[in-house]
Amino acid sequence: MARVQAEPFDPNAELAAFARGRENVGALASFVGLVRGGDTQALHLDHYPGFTEREIARIEEAAVDRFGLMDALVIHRHGTMRPGEPIVLAAALAAHRKPALLAVDFLMDYLKTDAPFWKRETSAAGSTWIEPTDADRAARQAWEKD
Amino acid sequence: MARVQAEPFDPNAELAAFARGRENVGALASFVGLVRGGDTQALHLDHYPGFTEREIARIEEAAVDRFGLMDALVIHRHGTMRPGEPIVLAAALAAHRKPALLAVDFLMDYLKTDAPFWKRETSAAGSTWIEPTDADRAARQAWEKD
Amino acid sequence: MNILFFGRLKDIARGRTFAPPVHLRTLGELRDWLAASDDLLGDALRAKGVKIALNQEIADPSRAYSPSDEIAFMSPLSGG
Amino acid sequence: MNILFFGRLKDIARGRTFAPPVHLRTLGELRDWLAASDDLLGDALRAKGVKIALNQEIADPSRAYSPSDEIAFMSPLSGG
């Protein structure tokens, strides 16, 4: 399931709902990305309504197919977030451990470079756009070689 | 924190407590291993009281050092578990995504081969010991090459 | 035609509306026409990693568009 | 001396207590003496991946032990 929302969410409540009532699951892997503190006062994420949701659903489907998952979950916020707040939750349910962990890594690499979001950070020094680094692109490309 | 207990636990409540009140965390990765259903009626895990806790703490420390984690968490059950129940929770808090995900993979690989647990499965056909496979050992050894 | 800008490009376009001439045919021609209208916008449109979406699908600059299309110029994505 | 068995070895030892002769000195000698007491236990003690712990530390068969030690023979571990 792919969800994009402005409202804060509780990753643990979402994970509990995601895993509830499943049969034969052996592995649940998950990742929560949070707004780091330090200099950051706020993080702003723009999205492209409609397109963003569809691209995330496409990334999820790719993960489910590639790793033989029982299910995948991505919840991604847009709008303004404060330090400590969750930005993104990615989770994978599988029969076994390795596919579940690999799938979460894959989901995050693809979300980083392929999901239509634009990230701006506000600190005391002002507001700056954050764009993907070469390392982000390399991580995404490594999956294409396998 | 390393905990070994006979009582069932709620992975999401544990994750929430683990992440609560942290400063400057950007990434929380986690893995929950559950008793698979199918033929399995119950899973029994023996441990070596004292030794098991210490070995898990040692594996956690290795993960914290190696990946520069802010903290690591392992909760592992012993005793008798039913399908659907969590066996193990491993989690890592870090500033960034990749170290958190790698640390969880590392924790699970080491728990599998180095933590003093012995696993027996009960099905309609009887009760059998489950021992680590060559693949488990290879996964553990791959970390030593890096 | 609905022209959208995202990320850094949105800041630079600043809500302006553009009325591209009717003789333009491809997304690349539209991009070049927009770039010529403003140096800052031109630099940003030619930056590494800028993508174009035609009706919410990533599209090549060689693709033709029609007046009813939704066209988005997108700065490098940064989700996750 | 406290001798413990874990995993498959525990099933085979079945709660028996062992009184090894006092002339034994190393963990390896103790293992061989236990193995000689019972074919099934012997096979299981020589299986791949069996480890010995001396006072809750993994130890080599060449290590000497004393009567007050806790010694554990452990079938291959399977946590996680």
Give a brief rundown of this model.
The complex is a heterotetramer, with two copies of chain A (146 residues) and two copies of chain C (80 residues). By secondary structure, chain A is of the alpha+beta class.
Structural commentary:
The complex is a heterotetramer, with two copies of chain A (146 residues) and two copies of chain C (80 residues). Chain A has 146 residues and is an alpha+beta fold. Chain A has one domain: Molybdopterin biosynthesis MoaE subunit (Aldehyde Oxidoreductase, domain 3, Alpha-Beta Complex). Chain A is 38% helix and 35% strand. Chain A is built from four helices and eight strands; from the N terminus they run E-H-E-E-H-E-E-E-H-E-E-H. Chain A has helices at 11-19, 51-67, 97-114, 134-145, and strands spanning 2-5, 27-34, 40-47, 71-77, 79-81, 86-94, 117-123, 126-130. Chain A has a four-stranded mixed β-sheet, sandwiched between helices. Chain A has a four-stranded antiparallel β-sheet with strand order 5-3-7-8, with no helix packed on it. In chain A, helix 3 packs across helix 4. Chain C has helices spanning 8-13, 27-36, 39-45, and strands at residues 2-6, 51-54, 58-59, 70-74. A four-stranded mixed β-sheet of chain C has the order 1-4-2-3. The radius of gyration of chain C is 12 Å and the shape is globular. Chain C contains three helices and four strands; from the N terminus they run E-H-H-H-E-E-E. Chain C is α+β, with helices and mostly antiparallel strands. Chain C has a single domain (2-74), classed as Roll (Ubiquitin-like (UB roll)). In chain C, strand 2 and strand 3 (58-59) form a beta hairpin. The model of chain C has no long low-confidence stretch (mean pLDDT 93).
